[in-house]
Design goal:
There is one protein chain. The protein is α+β, with helices and mostly antiparallel strands and 202 residues long. 61% of the residues lie in helices and 12% in strands. It has a four-stranded antiparallel beta sheet, sandwiched between helices. The protein is globular.
Length: 202
Amino acid sequence: MMLQKNLTSFTTMTQSTALLLLTTLLLAGCNTDNRIQQTAALKQEMNAAEIKRVTNPQLIATVDEWGKELVAEARKALEKELGRNPQQATALCQDSQKVPLIAAMDRAYGVKIQLMGPADVKNQSLAPKERELLDAYLYNAENNLPQSDNVQKLNDTLLLYTAPVPLESLICKTCFKDQQVTFAVWRVLFDRKAVIRKMNAK
């Protein structure tokens, strides 16, 4: 009788132990899946953050290429908005972020796209190098000289792409019609690290 009681007790204990062991293994399995997912996410994050060697000429060429594409899209988007909503012209001209596509491109590329005009030559929030560049654009406009796009390294972290807006464009005719000298320039400010990350991802 005692033996049977001990066996029953042992069997119950063994079942409890087995159940506990099975639960532990299941939880460990879940944790392993969790760990694998976390490791994969961490690896992806580290790859995105990893900065591989990119030469200055490569960087300038990339900013020039992307700047051209972004400005072409920004120009089309702003002209479309100006055509559809002429009553909002002042707000759209002063803040290109009010154009949904331009705001979306800013987020996607990690850039800042803006429209600049003659008044920005004295804009103290801009770097001196930027104001000098705008002054050169203004001088060319005053003297009917050819204008061209440009890439400048502002400092160790920022690169600037600028492109003149054609005088016959709806943008110049709408946004800068009352200026003594009609001229407008697209300003695209690039973050160096963001450019390099995107270059490595491609």
